[in-house]
Design goal:
This protein has 187 residues and is mainly α. The protein is built from 10 helices and no strands. Helices cover 73% and strands 0% of the residues.
Length: 187
Amino acid sequence: MEEIAKRSELSKGTLYLYFPSRDELVYSINSKGFNLINEKLSEILLSGDTGEKMLRTLFMFGVNFSHDQPLYFEAFRYYELYSDSNDLEEKPIVKECEDKRQILFTLSERIFQIAIQDGSIKSKYSPKLLTIIYWSGIRGLLEFFDTKSTVRHTPFFQNFLKQDHDIHSTYLEIIMHGIIQKQNIGE
């Protein structure tokens, strides 16, 4: 909190007036981060694009979010890893975050539903399941290649440091190949 106060040019006491703890500050950042994501997902849904194009936009947004918004990405990681489970039931800001996370999943699921309805992707998959797989995959990919990750600094992965775009695009290609209707592949 002291470092945050210094960077924001506020006294530590003033910061505590707004955020009684570091956790409260992180929850507040998460809430704003969920707002940004949900706004983008709403834009994707309102774009009028095909389901396949929406999915590709969704994927690239997910990959780029951690690069474009590193503060939010770090806050999400902290929230998921260090939140006290008691906070989930007791604090209104945490309920707000969880409600916004639910909106994120609902909007994402709707994108997959549209892609199924317009024939862009195979209908044998549940949109809910695809949503969970998508966000888990994006999350894992970003975590794995995070510059602070110890895995990233092992000799094996040093060769991948300059190839993030190739890794992301290959991942997208593999995922899309698995769910896109055969006649749509390559279009």
